[in-house]
Amino acid sequence: MLRLLRPWMVRVILAIGVLACVAAPSRSAEPVRIRVLTYNIQHGAGMDRQIDLERTAAVIKRLAPDVVALQEVDNQTTRAGGVAQAAELGKLTGMHAAFGKAMDYAGGQYGNAILSRFPVGEVHVHELPFEAGCEPRCAVAARIRFGSAGPEIVFVSTHLEHAKAPVRLRQAQTLDAALTKDNAWTIVAGDLNDVPDSPTIKSLQAGWTDATAEQPDPTWPADHPRVKIDYVFFRPSAALRVVERQVIDEPAASDHRPLLVVLETMP
């Protein structure tokens, strides 16, 4: 067939084929498992109110996650003794770290963070709507490739308003709109401060897969959990499947229990 074409036509056809291969989304030949942990660490303070990042790091290391969404993270505040907590937890766990500021606080900053076993690519902080009397909230998003042959996924750590349900719903809707502008595979994890049958959670379930919908075990308070307010969502639903989900029996290191979800890429 190619012998019947002029040389320049052959070059064009071959070039188009190369471009098509580059543009196509990469999928590994074998399924890739991704261990996702979300943990509100209460600025490293446990139920005893003592800040102990080594204790926090020990919990994380024991669970061997690939990525961690952290909430209530201090960055060089007087409360935390000037420690950049995300960076310090990165050192203590041997993971890459990224911090996203929600607000200035106590001489430093306060917000969310990401830890990753793999290098962290582009990082973006999404500011979320709030009103007078509410803490500013944000979501920190990072592009992460899970191994040399694994998928590139946007991983997001967020923390929604705790007191005013209408504000919380607007934050969830804003985050949804910001993260669905492209077709990137995306995982959102964090403390959403609402229960499974709430308008906030239902609004996210309309466009995202709720990884713990079939097992909504309580995550707060850590010593005697009564309500579920920590979640992992992902999209598109055809990209990943849930292999495992569990609330970790850790009653002391924070006022939340860690939530571990294991996802696997679909063939």
Written overview of the protein:
With 267 residues, the protein is an alpha+beta fold. The protein has 5 helices and 12 strands. Strands 3-4-2-1-12-11 form a 6-stranded mixed sheet. It has a 6-stranded mixed sheet with strand order 5-6-7-8-10-9, with helices on one face. A hairpin with a 6-residue loop joins strand 6 (137-145) and strand 7. 43% of the residues are buried.
Order of neighbouring strands in the sheet with most strands? 3-4-2-1-12-11
Global geometry = globular
Mean pLDDT: 91
User: What percent strand?
Assistant: 25-35%
Query: Number of helical runs?
Result: 5
Poorly predicted spans: 1-5, 7-27
List the quaternary state of the chains: single chain
From the structure above, extract its key features.
267 residues, alpha+beta, 6-stranded mixed beta sheet, 5 helices, 12 strands, globular, disordered N terminus
Sum this structure up briefly.
The protein is 22% helix and 34% strand. It has 267 residues and is of the alpha+beta class.
Helix and strand arrangement:
Layout: H1 7-23, E1 33-40, H2 53-63, E2 67-75, H3 85-93, E3 96-105, E4 108-116, E5 120-128, E6 137-145, E7 152-159, H4 165-179, E8 186-191, H5 199-205, E9 209-210, E10 230-235, E11 240-247, E12 259-265
Parallel strand pairs: 1-2, 7-8
Antiparallel strand pairs: 1-12, 2-4, 3-4, 5-6, 6-7, 8-10, 9-10, 11-12
Helix pairs in contact: 2-3, 4-5
